[in-house]
């Protein structure tokens, strides 16, 4: 492969370097994966069961098996709107996912208003609490709507131990209260939604969903989830990818038909064999490798160079 046009490690400035076109999945703004996702066997049943039963779908499986991508295709096919994404970490709290109240910002804004009024001799403006409330991903997903909204709760297994239990309660009832609005007796407030400039009316500080959102939760299995939580979900484990699934994924992402034999087929078959043997390698590693090997220069590599590149990109994920 000729990397000569890019980094060479000689410290010489190469003005106006132009990189080749990025792989289709690394263009920005990000493209939806709805058109390129190929559902593995059993997933369609699991999604439909969750949709019909109005239950969250809990998807488990190894890295890169497509867990976080499923919802993009469902949301697009059923026109559920933009996917609300909640990426869970050990610091995530249920209250942040419902709504945030910026009390300090409000005090600051109020003080500024008063100072301005004093300087100008006029009246201080209205102190509107709603301007300092911001719904989170879960809070937005539970707003009343004619269609269910799509919510991804990604990597729920990274959560603090209490989070699944707390979440269970909100999901059972499909409602929550904004105590700050209740306390201040605000009967009607316009509150900003997650990831949007749009506002939604909230009456008497109470939000109640009218359509239970379509929720996908993903887990890499780092933490056991409690049985009462599991009981209320439809659960699906991403299966080990078959050769035909991987070929279809490659076709959709790269518009490339992997022949039955030859170097590309060997790469795909080796990937399927490694995953089946329990190694941790992900399909996007394979896609990246195929992209490079089929790009400019990649096709001209000799055997040793090719093996070096494959070794670099197809490393097991359990080691750095
Ligand atoms: N069945 C599939 N069809 C099409 N693309 C796939 C499929 N499975 C995985 N991919 C691609 O692999 C990449 C990784 O997928 P994704 O991020 O959804 O995996 P994940 O299971 O959430 O991984 P992680 O556990 O690391 O978060 C994405 O670019 C996705 O498009
Ligand atoms: Mg993921």
Walk me through what this model shows.
- The mean pLDDT is 94.
- The chain has helices at 43-53, 70-77, 94-98, 103-120, 137-141, 163-173, 179-183, 227-231, 243-254, 263-276, 283-294, 303-313, and strands at 57-60, 84-87, 99-101, 133-135, 150-154, 175-177, 188-192, 199-203, 206-208, 214-219, 234-237.
- The relative contact order is 0.16.
- A 5-stranded parallel β-sheet has the order 2-5-10-1-11. The chain has a two-stranded antiparallel sheet with strand order 3-4. Strands 6-9 form a two-stranded antiparallel sheet.
- Helix content is 37%, strand content 14%.
- The radius of gyration is 25 Å and the shape is globular.
- Strand 7 and strand 8 (199-203) form a beta hairpin.
- The protein has 2 domains: 43-237, Rossmann fold (3-Layer(aba) Sandwich), CATH 3.40.50.300; 240-313.
- The longest helix has 18 residues, at 103-120.
- With 320 residues, the protein is of the alpha/beta class.
- The structure holds adenosine-5'-triphosphate and magnesium ion (MG).
- The site of adenosine-5'-triphosphate has 20 residues, from helix 9 and helix 11.
């Amino acid at each position: 492969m000729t990397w000569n046009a890019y980094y060479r490690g000689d410290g010489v400035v190469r003005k106006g370097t132009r990189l080749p076109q990025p792989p289709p999945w690394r263009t920005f703004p990000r493209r939806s994966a709805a058109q390129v996702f190929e559902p593995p066997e059993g997933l369609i049943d699991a999604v439909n069961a969750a949709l019909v039963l109005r239950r969250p779908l809990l998807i488990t499986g190894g890295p890169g098996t497509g867990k976080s991508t499923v919802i993009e295709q469902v949301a697009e096919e059923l026109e559920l709107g933009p996917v609300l994404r909640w990426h869970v970490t050990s610091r995530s709290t249920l209250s942040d996912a419902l709504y945030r109240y910026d009390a300090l910002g409000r005090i600051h804004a109020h003080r500024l208003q008063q100072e301005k009024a004093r300087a100008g001799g006029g009246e201080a403006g209205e102190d509107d609490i709603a301007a300092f409330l911001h719904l989170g991903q879960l809070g937005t997903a539970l707003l009343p709507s004619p269609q269910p909204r799509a919510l991804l709760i990604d990597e729920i297994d990274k959560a603090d131990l209490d989070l699944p239990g707390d979440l269970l309660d909100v999901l059972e009832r499909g409602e929550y209260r904004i105590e700050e609005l209740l306390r201040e007796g605000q009967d009607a407030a316009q509150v900003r939604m997650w990831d949007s400039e749009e506002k939604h009316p909230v009456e008497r500080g109470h939000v109640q969903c009218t359509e239970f959102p379509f929720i996908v939760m993903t887990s890499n299995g780092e933490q056991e989830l409690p049985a009462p939580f599991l009981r209320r979900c439809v659960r699906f484990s991403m299966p080990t990818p078959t050769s035909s699934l991987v070929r279809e994924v490659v076709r959709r992402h790269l518009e490339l038909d992997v022949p039955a034999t030859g170097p590309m087929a060997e790469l795909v078959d080796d990937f399927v064999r490694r995953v089946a043997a329990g190694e941790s390698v992900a399909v996007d590693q394979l896609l990246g490798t195929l992209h490079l090997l089929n790009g400019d220069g990649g096709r001209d590599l000799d055997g040793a160079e090719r093996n070096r590149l494959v070794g670099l990109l197809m490393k097991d994920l359990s080691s750095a």
